[in-house]
Amino acid sequence: MKRPYEVTVAGWLFVVVGVLNTAYHLWKGALDRWMILILLLTVSAIVAGVFLLRGARWARWLALAWIAFHVVVSALNSLWDSLPHAVLLLVVGYVLLGPPTSAYYRQGQTG
Questions:
Q1: Which of 6, 30, 35, 111 is the most exposed place for a label (fewest CB within 10 A)?
Q2: Structural domain tally of the chain?
Q3: Distance, CA of 52 to CA of 65 (rounded, Å)
């Protein structure tokens, strides 16, 4: 089965967002103990995107966990700030777990 375009778009978006976030935090952030955690989180978006493109089932959950983490962090600021992230989580959740892509991941994909 050919990879659905939804998976391709989501995978590349995670790669691009991860690369941009990593570059931003390395450029603007202070080199302290939190930078390691921040870089692990930004690199996890890149990993999720690459493995979404390769067809790994577990990468869907990593991508959703990455967005869910941002929902929680933005909710610490204010509930209104978390609303866009929550909507994004619902949309990406449907895209990665919905009917078109679930059939793709059931077709003997590894991971």
A1: 30
A2: 1
A3: 14
